[in-house]
Design a protein that fits this description.
The protein is mainly alpha-helical. It has one domain (about 45-150). Helices cover about 35% and strands about 5% of the residues. It contains 1 helix and 4 strands; from the N terminus they run αββββ. It has one helix spanning about 15-65; strands at about 90, 95, 115, 135. The strands form 2 sheets. A two-stranded antiparallel sheet has the order 1-2. It has a two-stranded antiparallel ribbon with strand order 3-4. The longest helix is centred in the N-terminal third of the chain and has 54 residues, at about 15-65. It is elongated. The protein starts with 12 loop residues before the first helix and ends in a 16-residue tail after the last strand.
Length: about 150
């Protein structure tokens, strides 16, 4: 009679160590990529929010200068960012709100935006309290493309 020795099936210690090493290398590569993707998404949202607010500022100025507002809140550019969220009565009887709300800066996590009037120095943090001509992020730091957030 021929004897057969049954061999246990499973992984050897070497196979387990190699598999764990490969898995940890892949995880180590995935983490920076996920962090990069999250930062890139925040920067995309920041650009979109800045563009929306700048468009609303321009629409406010165009409507004000064209005399489209029934009671002009101010002549020219808006006095505050909050005035972009308030209802404005148009000459045709309709009401207009340029923004639903002031967006949250995705980099800083708050609604504290920097603003400039036409007379302000673009490099300063000061605002003369007059009409808002531009809005910028108060976030410190540099974007993935090498530019500073406040220069966007």
């Amino acid at each position: 009679m021929v004897s057969t020795i049954s061999r246990a099936r499973g992984f050897t210690l070497i196979e387990l160590i190699v598999s764990a090493a490969i898995l940890s290398i892949l995880c180590g590569l995935a983490l920076p990529m996920a962090t990069y993707a999250a930062r890139r998404e925040k920067e995309r949202l920041l650009r979109r929010d800045l563009q929306e607010m700048r468009d609303a500022i321009d629409q406010y100025a165009q409507g004000s200068l064209a005399g489209a507002f029934f009671k002009a809140p101010s002549s020219g550019y808006p006095p505050t960012l909050e005035s972009l969220t308030e209802s404005i009565e148009l000459r045709n009887g309709k009401k207009l709100r340029l923004l639903k709300e002031i967006p949250i800066d995705p980099i800083t996590g708050n609604r504290d935006w920097g603003v400039h009037s036409m007379e302000d120095d673009p490099d300063s943090d000061s605002w003369d309290g007059e009409q808002i001509w531009n809005v910028y992020s108060k976030a410190d730091g540099t974007a993935l493309d090498g530019t500073k957030y406040r220069e966007w």
